[in-house]
Amino acid sequence: MKKILVVRNDKIGDFMLAWPSFAMLKQSLPDSEITALVPAYTKDLALLCPWIDKVIVDCTKRADKAAKRALISQIKAEQFDASICLFSDTYNATLVWKARIPYRLAPATKFAQVLYNRRLKQRRSRSEKPEFEYNLDLIRFFLEDNRVAIKEPQGPYLTFNTDCLDAQRMKLDNLLGLDASSRWCFVHAGSGGSANNLSLNQYAGLIKGLAQSFGGEFVLTAGPGEEAMAASLYELVKDDVKAVIYDKNDGLEDFTRSLACADLFIAGSTGPLHIAATLDVLTLGFFPNKRSATPLRWQTLNTEGRHLAFCPPEGKETETDMGLIEVDEVLVRAKTWVAQYWS
Q1: Please, which residues have CB within 8 angstroms of residue 52's CB and are 6 or more apart in sequence?
Q2: d(CA 60, CA 63)
Q3: GO molecular function terms here (predicted)?
Q4: Are 31 and 2 in contact (CB under 8 A)?
Q5: What are the backbone dihedrals phi and psi of residue 96, each rounded to the nearest 5 degrees, phi first?
Q6: How buried is 287 (Cβ within 10 angstroms: 0-12 exposed, 13-18 middle, 19+ buried)?
Q7: In principle, which of 33, 135, 306, 330 could form an S-S bond with 21, CB 3.0–4.6 Å?
Q8: Which domains does the chain have, with CATH numbers?
Q9: Hey, CA dihedral for 207, 210, 213, 216, is it positive or negative?
Q10: pTM for the whole thing?
């Protein structure tokens, strides 16, 4: 197995939760060439991953037939020995089957599984373990199936050297007028449409409570289309805390370097939360309580103790009502937790 294609071509958060899988695969098979198939919007992140050797950009299932044929030809030309689909649907199954990859592994779900010749039953719908563990189970199956000794990975999964971080802090200082000697708390109030999130008033109460106890400066981040949300949050807190809006950057790699400069990152269950966790920045996250979206299922990649999660109370009527998360109760736990690192 010299050339292996790993497919994780869905959202940013899902892709970040595949990093331990790339680490396990590369560390267990250091002489292999690991290629990731990802959509264009996660390409920059894939290029940052130290365990990915090559990246192929997926045209996605919405592309026309000509683009899909070209992608299949590109994959076929690489002459992969194996493919591992961490996420499986009919589109992905068809890609690796038409590319004639000899060894094709994926979760044994849906009708598409007939196009794979190696399958692992996972029952992800039960959400009994974190998403990254489901991914790792597939890699373990692959390695055991090929009689390869398994090297268990450990975080942090992404780091930048001191010179890089110093340069990024200076860049943010010049761009946003931040104080380099102060603690920086990043807050991402958007959700990218991927999960329920706190209201702006809840975020404002959280920011004011943390500022009252710890001071610091608050960086209000925003993705495309979320600029107005960040501006509204700024209006709610500007009279009580030092806050700035960070809604423009030089691409996803630049944004990732900025997150690495944070002393704390606060968000709902979003891609930016999982990027920050991969960097092992302290993360405070808010999740729905329905089975497919719990803090357990979407547990971040932080090392032990560096993530704190909250969700609404259990019950069908309350599981997705983020308004039921009491900010005062969050602050009691969060202040004690943060104080361990900010004393």
Answers
A1: 22, 26, 34, 35, 36, 46
A2: 6
A3: ADP-heptose-lipopolysaccharide heptosyltransferase activity
A4: yes
A5: -75, -30
A6: buried
A7: 135
A8: 3-145 (3.40.50.2000), 162-342 (3.40.50.2000)
A9: negative
A10: 0.96
CB atoms within 10 A of CB 251: 8
* pLDDT tens by residue, 228-265: 999 999 999 999 999 999 999 999 999 999 999 999 99
Torsional class of 254: left (φ above 0), alpha (ψ -120 to 50), beta (otherwise): alpha
- What is the average pLDDT value for the chain, to the nearest integer? 95
User: Can you tell me the distance from the alpha carbon of 19 to that of 241, in angstroms, rounded to the nearest whole number?
Assistant: 36
C-beta separation of 16 from 155 below 8 A: no
pLDDT of residue 316 exceeding 80, the answer is no
